Amino acid sequence: MKDSDKTVMVGALMLVAGGIMGAGVALLYAPQSGKKTRQDIARYSRKAKRRAEDIVDDFTESVSELTEAVSEKASEILDKGKDVAQDAKRELLRAIEEGQHKLEKQKSRLSKIIG
Fold this sequence. Notes:
Radius of gyration: 35 Å
Strand content: under 5%
Helix content: over 70%
Number of helices: 2
Distance between the termini: 74 Å
Number of strands: 0
């Protein structure tokens, strides 16, 4: 998880917590009955809980999607690397065989010259 993702998550949670606290303070100072205030606090608490859960769910989904995308890219890169390695092996073997052929040719020429 990147630092920027953590910062966004912390900021979002702090925003929700601040909203809850603000609503709680506003309800405590509101001119209404204690029963009504308790009901309002409970309602705001449930609403804030749902918002926090939604934020966590969204963040979890984003991290999951990011992890999946990174995994897919890593697999693609690994597959490409395997292909490149196989191609390099083939080229190396071809170059070695070509070199051996040229050495044999030179050996044959030297044999004819030396006698």
